[in-house]
Amino acid sequence: MRPAVALGAMASIALLCVGIVASGRNLVDSEATSITVDEIDPAMLELPEPDDTAAEGEPDTAVQPPEPESEPAPETTARYQRVEPRAPLSDLGQAKQPDIKRPADWDGTSLHRPISNAAGTFEAMGYSVTIAGTEPVDADETCNFKGDSWPCGARARTAFRSFLRGRAVICAMPEGAEPGAITAECRIGTDNMGEWLVENGWARAAAGGPYAELGEKAQSAAKGVYGPPPVRIETAPLPDGAQLPVLEADPAEVPLQ
């Protein structure tokens, strides 16, 4: 039984191979008959001869080499010259430079790292300077505003220190001034220090001085030492039964026994 099955399988494989070969031949024959090639005309392969009889009026677009008689540009050793720009055609051409107007006492002596102990006075570089035209306010002075007394001297000193901020002060020093107590007109930048103090009420104007009018305006406007005390921020009361936490002492501060 097994030999018969094997022979049948081999016969089937042989028939399948014969069918594949026959179908392949038919496919090759069909593709070969569908391709057609046109014959090439030999005249198409010949290049046209150049036409030597070109029209005389037509311009020649080819790049021409330089003429042998042409000379290069002459060499020059002159350097470039800087020329001032021309003036603008109108006011809208460019921004105008601001006119710097300096006061007559623009020049002076610079005093660095000033320290103030009272409004209207400061110390720097060995000088104890009092601002001319002002009456300084002592740091421990108290003022009364509508029956309310408050430490206006300490407040004025704080305001003056904030104005200084460690900046250099330029003063018109008296002739032959030596380190020590002097009275001079001073400024920081373009700000007149005496004018700033009196105008904001942190120093009183000297009688008959240049800032008397500013002092009257500051007093009428209740500025600085003429005004009310600064507003105090009061803490809200603690709720019933609440207690603040007890801070423990720093070990470094505990004395050794």
TrEMBL record:
InterPro entries per record = SNase_OB-fold_sf
Q: Where is the composition biased (Acidic residues)?
A: 48-59
Q: Give the span(s) annotated as Disordered.
A: 47-112
Please give the Gene3D superfamilies that the UniProt record associates with this protein. Answer: 2.40.50.90
The molecule here is called Endonuclease YncB, thermonuclease family
Give the source species: Neomesorhizobium albiziae
